[in-house]
Amino acid sequence: MASQSSQELTGAGAPAVESRFFTPPAEFEGCFTTFYRMTLILPGDTVVSDYMQPEWASLRFFSGALPTAKIGDDVLSESRYAATGPSSNPAHFTIGSTRMWGIGVLPLGWARLFDADASELANRMVDGTHHPAFSRFKPLADILCDDTISDEKHFFAIVEAMRQNMRPHRDEDRILRVHRALLDETIRTVADLAERTGINPRSQERLCCRYFGFTPKILLRRQRFVRSLSTFMLDSGGKWTGAMDAHYHDQAQFSREFSNFMGMKPSEYAAMDHPVMNSFVAARARMLGSPAQALDAPGG
């Protein structure tokens, strides 16, 4: 078991964010981003709000304060097990001091673990305890939400739960081909993607909706956007011009795309405090070499 930890202390009266990242076993290669434990410590009974950027599917288990979160039309509160499908919209959340375990599920992991079409759960946030697509992992909540159990035992519980639910899938090779191609910054169009993967456009669209949650066109746009937003969060000197992906024609196009994905203007986002995500993204980039789920390679 390999793990890396990072602690971000953001000043007196500000949140302390401590993250620990665990590498999934080799048998799960290509299925998960990481298994991670994040601890958020706030003074007294204060709460913070922030926005999660678009990402792959996630399972999150909370002990301590429970979040109130919203993505699209879904609002979830008082749930210790929150599950989200792949997203192209932000998830806004408000939370107090807590400890959370997160499991990021890549498209190959979705194919091996879930029977539902990812497109049916795209931009959805549900109580995993009761939702039929996610309830098989309900027993994990009793373990991961127990602070008396060590991180190491939590990790092994996650591994065992995933091992019991994994099954091979006939589309694995095609899923990995598409996923790797999405990460290639030289690919600009759906036609480029089809040529690189050797999958005809109609079949590729069905495959992407089934396991990735969105059409190839939206996935390529999301990749450009997440690359830009992550660069801004990490090192842009506070200027969008230094963060914009090279595939954007101009700042006006980027601003339109930002509004489409985040529901606000770039200037509005930049003017906000991001007490949780800035710390977490920086720690993720430092520990894993990738600042965001959507930028993680599937391996293999």
TrEMBL record:
Annotated HTH araC/xylS-type domain residues: 173-272
InterPro entries registered for this protein in UniProt: HTH_AraC (IPR018060)
Taxonomic lineage of the native organism: Bacteria, Pseudomonadati, Pseudomonadota, Alphaproteobacteria, Sphingomonadales
SMART domains, per the entry: HTH_ARAC
Naturally occurring in which organism (per UniProt): Aurantiacibacter marinus
Pfam families recorded: HTH_18
The protein, known as: HTH araC/xylS-type domain-containing protein
Molecular function via GO: DNA-binding transcription factor activity; sequence-specific DNA binding
